[in-house]
Amino acid sequence: MEKKVDILVIGAGPAGMVSAVTARKYYPDKKILVMKNISNGVIPCGIPYMFSSLTNPDDNKMGTALLEKNQIDVALDEATRINRNVKMVETVSGTRFIYEKLILSVGSSPVIPPIPGIDKKGIYPVCKDMDYLKDCIKNIRQTKDVLILGGGFIGVEFADEISNLKGINVYLAEIFPTILANSFDEEFASIAEEKLRSKGVHIFTGERVKEFLGSGKVESVRFDNGKEIKADSVILGIGASPNTRLALEAGLEMEKGKGIWVDEYMRTTDSDIFAVGDCACKKDFYTRRDTPVMLASTATAEARIAGANLYQLKLVRENKGTIAIYSTYVNGLILGSAGLTENTAKKEGFEIVTGHAEGVDKHPANLAGAGKIKIKLIFSRQSGILMGGQVAGGISSGEIINLIGMAIQQRVSIIELETLQIATHPFLTSAPTVYPVVLASQDASSKMRSSEAH
Q: Less Cβ around it within 10 Å: N or C end of the chain?
């Protein structure tokens, strides 16, 4: 069977859905179809919260109502081959889709490390499939000892959530010296670590898992240093790798094995094929190096660029690189990071100055619900341009890191942040006299002036 569509989107995750909806807004007369290969998908960011915070795991279902509302067709099928010569996609069902424009939003697959015993029962990669996840949740709720392998965002969120379940010992293992090492400097990572430990999470940093032990099903874990712990369930939260097979077999260019090569408008080496989300390569905003950032927020930003520019470059806002803006929630603590950390900036050879501020997120400080807030900003010492920021505190931290991300994207200077015009309110923000973003900028500015004087 053969079907003709104007715009074919392969993949119904956040990037696929947003690219299709954006295309509908810019090209209202085009026939658009989204192909999905999983009948019950999930909202990726909500996966950890299916264990405890969500009463019903089904509440995290990724539906297709948004697509249907925008008159976008949906097909449950799996692409097996792209024939670029005739602009056709073949599928498992035998259907051949003829397209004008094709968007690859095929995502990523969890990394399975080559550790002896990794294939034992009770070891769960994080797959974005509702039926698989519900089975995983059911089994883990019945276990006594759970190990989360990987101390990045996903691992930390799993540890926080599962520690809410009674009668389960939670262990978190990270090979780096600190958790969240890729996104936060040590003084912020330590706050998160303290929050997890206060909930009873056992954290092993700087340790590598050597082997999973047990007969058929995992029963314990042995580390490189010889230490063993009981674990009748293991969650693999150590990252994902781009799904590139379709693109590779179609002859599209790859970026050193780290995703499908795309230009600033998300076009592949075939001008009629775009790639967005986890499957597309990412370039660091400052260095243009490959960066392994896989975030729904980044994916949807790429999707809006692709969806708008399918037929003409209508949205003259090219993808200037990945800033990598993260935020997470750990036992009441909000942590946010954007751009370069102090560690990564120094590793790249940038000459920087940092600014720090600590305060209270409401005013006056004894107002009900007020809590501590801590901010760190990283500036180029010579130009004064903002290069990165980190924040830890209450709910307002989630939007403060977005403000910092926008400032990075627009290459805002230290002087502009020192004179930032802000809205404040006792229940919503720190006092205007001690607004932490401004204070951190002033701190960095004074350090710059001091170094110039010497």
A: C
